[in-house]
Specification:
A hairpin with a 4-residue loop joins strand 10 and strand 11. This protein is globular. The strands form three sheets. A five-stranded mixed beta sheet has the order 5-6-1-7-8. It has a five-stranded antiparallel beta sheet with strand order 11-10-12-9-13, covered by helices on one side. It contains 16 helices and 13 strands. With 428 residues, the chain is α+β, with helices and mostly antiparallel strands. The longest helix has 21 residues.
């Protein structure tokens, strides 16, 4: 029995959500990006009007302004996009517990065993599309296939608000004529290399000797050959407590060079407050804390620590970050930049094994304190309540890192996704 896999992709996700909340911007070219006044940042998303004008994701804001002078830039609101991602996954859950996020706005669904009571793949796709539009106010494009790679290719095939089925009967006609760069994980560099060997379409890739692909691209050549032939057997992960993103982090170039442990501690706590607040707002906890440091000679390092229990507590994140700093930096030069990141995210209500050596009562008190600080700052502003530590240096304590955060989506090969490449044998 063939699997029935859907890939649902919210159309122009960030821009669509912004237009939903700012209807007066409809009819104008908009892009979600950084701070145009500070003259930095890139285009994270754009609406259809900006896209037709030549604006592309990843463009610098000034470049987008050049190709589309009337463009309107909107700052990103990641918490809002995360909320929509969760709402979409709640709709998907009505059809299957096998749903695997691929970033905030995309998700694979295995509906193989839903057919007996929900209908076939196209029927389910149409119902999901209708519900997303009616309940969330945005549109999705959905691909329907027997494997994850062609399902994603189907969701990309026709946009916006479309459904495309790529089947064993039609994939030679639909998938194979497409540019090889349309295949998942054929990036610009790989596409350029394949083009040099005369491989310009997915069909040409599929019909190339795998031994040659292995020679040119290593193991990834075998993976791409398998993808192009629709042979990917990777399962859609069963719904679990993993977040749809890999990490939430903040980094900052400090207003002055840091010259002491106290300086670093002030910045680390400011960043940890930001990261932990984002975790709580979006109902996540982290199992890994990461710190990155760059000194005045631009030497940099990144270190991680896995914790015994998931956390969203400012104190635990900051203390683990400071331990990483003390274990790895010897003060040869002043420090110019520090970053703190929460990684390996899980849903906040995920079950955990209790640890006899962890004081859960103390953790609960710290959690209530953090939540209280969140409420006070939402009502009265960031500087309305501060840790005593921050008063040791008023310049450093002015940092409000919460407004400059980064979110990293999950990738296809996350969580040990196996492509089956090790099952392929190359002669010679």
């Amino acid at each position: 029995m063939d699997r029935v896999i859907l890939h649902s992709d919210m159309n122009n996700c960030y821009a669509s959500i912004e237009l939903l909340h700012h209807p007066k911007l409809r009819g104008h070219p908009i892009a979600v990006g950084g701070d145009p006044e500070a003259r930095h940042g890139i285009v994270l998303a754009k609406d259809q009007i900006a896209k037709k004008a030549g604006v592309k994701t990843g463009m610098a804001l000034w470049q987008a302004r050049q190709v589309c002078p009337e463009i309107i830039f909107v700052p990103p609101h990641m918490d809002l996009y995360l909320r929509f991602s969760k709402l979409a996954r709640e709709i998907y859950a009505d059809y299957t517990d096998q749903q695997e996020p691929f970033g905030l706005d995309e998700c694979w669904l295995d509906v193989t065993h839903s057919g007996s009571y929900k209908g076939d793949g196209m029927t389910i796709a149409k119902e999901i599309s209708s519900r997303i539009k009616y309940e969330l106010g945005v549109t999705v494009s959905i691909g329907v296939s027997w494997n994850k790679i062609f399902a994603k290719l189907g969701s990309d095939y026709k946009k916006p608000d479309a459904i495309t089925a790529i089947t064993k009967d039609n994939f030679h006609q639909i998938a194979w004529p497409l540019p090889v760069g349309d295949l998942l994980y054929v990036g610009r560099a790989t596409q350029k290399k394949l083009n040099l060997y005369g491989i310009r379409t997915i069909g040409q890739l599929a019909q190339t000797d795998p031994e040659l692909l292995h020679r040119w691209l290593g193991k990834m050549g075998l993976v791409l050959h398998m993808f192009a032939n629709g042979e990917d057997q990777t399962p859609v992960a069963v719904e679990d407590y993993h977040a749809p993103i890999k990490s939430i982090g903040n980094s900052t170039t400090t207003p002055r060079d840091l010259v002491s442990d106290t300086d670093v501690k002030i910045i680390v706590y400011a960043l940890a407050e930001s990261v932990s607040a984002r975790l709580r707002e979006n109902n996540f906890k982290c199992r890994v804390v990461e710190i990155s440091v760059r000194d005045s000679d631009l030497y940099s390092f990144t270190r991680q620590h896995k914790m015994s229990a998931p956390t969203d507590l400012t104190t635990e994140i900051a203390e683990n970050a400071m331990k990483l700093f003390h274990d790895n930096y010897r003060w040869r030069k002043p420090i110019r930049s520090v970053g703190v990141r929460a990684c390996d995210l899980v849903e906040a209500d995920c079950p955990v094994q209790l640890d006899l050596f962890i004081d859960e009562n103390k953790r609960e008190r710290l959690h209530k304190m953090d939540m209280t600080v969140d409420v006070i700052r939402r009502r009265f502003g960031y500087e309305s309540i501060q840790r005593g530590l921050m008063y040791q240096d008023r310049l450093l304590s002015k940092l409000n890192a919460k407004d400059d955060h980064t979110v990293h989506p999950r990738g296809y090969f996350a969580d040990g996704n196996q492509t089956g490449v090790d099952l392929l044998k190359v002669s010679g």
